[in-house]
Design a protein that fits this description.
The structure holds 2 protein chains of 2 kinds. By secondary structure, chain A is α+β, with helices and mostly antiparallel strands. Chain A has helices at residues 2-25, 67-83, 106-116, 130-134, 172-181, and strands at 37-40, 45-47, 56-61, 90-94, 122-124, 138-139, 141-146, 151-156, 195-197. Chain A starts with a helix and ends with a strand. By secondary structure, chain B is α/β, with parallel strands linked by helices. Chain B has a 6-stranded mixed β-sheet with strand order 1-4-3-2-6-7. In chain B, helix 3 packs across helix 6. The chains are: A alpha+beta, B alpha/beta. At the A-B interface, strand 9 of A face helix 5 and strand 5 of B.
Chain lengths: 201, 170
C-alpha cells in the first residue's frame, strides 16, 4: 500500500513537472502543436485547419512597432509568395498587448497590412493565449510546422542578416522549407536573432 | 579714458570666457560611440578583476529598455564606489548611431559607459553570451569572477539592486 502510494506520488510529481516545463518553455522541435482560432485583419477567424491543401505552415510572431519586424516585412511577403503555392503559407500573428504597445492595436495592424500589401493573414493574439503555447519570446520569432503530425520542424530567425537584407548569406527559413519539401528534416532546426520582447502587462 | 576702456573690455572678455568655460562643463556632449564586433566585446564580458559588471543589452527603439535605463543609471552612480560598473551595450542599427543613439545619450545625459555591438552573426553571439538567451531585449548579464547570471527580462531599481546584492555577498 505504502509502495503504491509513493509510486502514485512520484507519478503525480512527474506529470506536474512535465507540465510545468511545457508551459514555461513552449513547443520544442518535434512537438505536436494545437490548432488555434484567431481574428485576422479582415475580421474573419483563421485556423490552421482551414488550409486543406497546405503541407505545413510558416508561423511568424511579428508586430507593427518592432524595427526588426519592420526590417523583415518585405522578406516575409517574398517567402509567402514563393512558398504558399508550394504548400507552406506564411501565417503572421501579433502577440503584443496593445495596452502596453500602442502601435500594435488591431486597427494599427489593419493599417500596416494594407500599407505593405501583406499577402498573408495577420492575426491578432487577443488575450495572449496563443504565443505562450509556442514559447515565443520576441518579434519576429518563426515556427515552421509540418502538417503531417502538426509537428514543429524549425524555431528561430528568418535569415542571418536581420538588419540588412543585402548581407544575407543564409536563408534559414527557406532552407528549412526546401528540406521539408524534399522529404528531409531541416539541417538547422534552431537559430537565434535579436528581436523585441513580447509586450505584456 | 583709455584705461577705463581697457578695464571694461577686460571685464567683458573675462565674463565671456568664464561663461564659455562654464557652458563646456554643463553640457558635456558625446560625439562618438565606440563600435565592437562580438570578438571585441567578449573580453568585456569575462573580466576577472575585483569588479562586478552589469551589462545591459538595449536599444533606443526598445521601449521597455528605455524605461529601465534610469534604474541602471542609478545603480551605476550609487555603487560606483563599491566596485560595480554598468556597461550599456546598444543594439541600435549602425546607421542610426549618429541620428538617434548619440542624441539620445546626450538628451538623457547617460553617465554609464555606452558601446555599440555591431555584429551580423547573431546566431553565434547570442548563444555565446548565454545559452538561454532567445535574443529578445531588454536582457542583462551580471557577472564577477565568482558568479555569472543572465536575465532575459526587464528590471526596476529594487529588483536590480537585489540581484546585485547576491553578487556582492559572495
Amino acid at each position: 500500500m505504502k509502495f503504491t502510494k509513493s509510486i502514485l506520488v512520484l507519478f503525480v510529481f512527474l506529470i506536474a513537472s512535465a507540465f510545468t516545463t511545457k508551459t514555461n518553455k513552449g513547443y520544442q522541435i518535434g512537438d505536436t502543436i494545437e490548432d488555434f482560432k484567431l481574428k485576422n485583419i479582415d475580421d474573419k477567424q483563421v485556423s490552421l485547419s482551414d488550409y486543406k491543401d497546405a503541407k505545413g505552415f510558416v508561423i511568424v510572431f511579428t508586430c507593427n512597432h518592432c524595427p526588426y519586424s519592420i526590417a523583415y516585412e518585405d522578406r516575409l511577403i517574398a517567402i509567402d509568395q514563393k512558398y504558399k503555392k508550394l504548400g507552406y503559407p506564411v501565417i503572421a500573428i501579433n502577440p503584443n498587448d496593445p495596452e502596453v504597445s500602442k502601435g500594435d492595436s488591431f486597427e494599427a495592424m489593419q493599417v500596416r497590412a494594407s500599407e505593405k500589401g501583406f499577402t498573408f493573414p495577420y492575426l491578432f493574439d487577443e488575450g495572449q493565449k496563443t504565443y505562450p503555447k509556442f514559447g515565443a519570446t520576441k518579434t519576429p520569432h518563426v515556427f515552421i510546422v509540418s502538417k503531417q503530425n502538426m509537428s514543429v520542424e524549425y524555431i528561430g530567425a528568418i535569415d542571418n542578416s536581420s538588419r540588412n537584407p543585402d548581407n544575407v548569406s543564409e536563408k534559414y527559413v527557406e532552407d528549412a522549407i526546401n528540406s521539408l519539401l524534399a522529404g528531409k528534416k531541416p539541417t538547422k532546426t534552431t537559430t537565434k536573432a535579436i528581436g523585441c520582447s513580447i509586450k505584456k502587462l | 579714458m583709455i584705461k577705463k576702456y581697457f578695464y571694461s573690455l577686460l571685464f567683458v572678455f573675462l565674463l565671456f570666457s568664464c561663461k564659455k568655460a562654464k557652458k563646456a562643463i554643463v553640457s558635456k556632449q558625446i560625439t562618438i560611440v565606440k563600435s565592437y564586433n562580438y570578438n571585441e566585446l567578449k573580453p568585456l564580458l569575462e573580466k576577472e578583476d575585483n569588479k562586478t559588471y552589469i551589462v545591459n543589452f538595449w536599444a533606443t527603439w526598445c521601449a521597455p529598455c528605455v524605461k529601465e535605463l534610469p534604474a541602471f543609471e542609478k545603480l551605476n552612480k550609487e555603487y560606483a564606489s563599491k566596485n560595480v560598473e554598468v556597461i550599456l551595450v546598444s543594439l541600435d542599427f549602425p546607421k542610426q548611431v549618429d541620428k538617434r543613439l548619440i542624441p539620445f545619450i546626450n538628451k538623457k545625459k547617460l553617465q554609464s559607459k555606452v558601446i555599440l555591438l555591431d555584429d551580423i552573426n547573431e546566431n553565434i553571439w547570442i548563444k555565446a553570451i548565454d545559452s538561454t538567451w532567445s535574443g529578445a531585449i531588454p536582457a542583462t548579464l551580471i557577472y564577477n569572477k565568482n558568479n555569472r547570471k543572465f536575465y532575459e527580462q526587464s528590471f526596476d531599481y529594487e529588483q536590480l539592486e537585489a540581484e546585485l546584492q547576491t553578487f556582492l555577498k559572495i
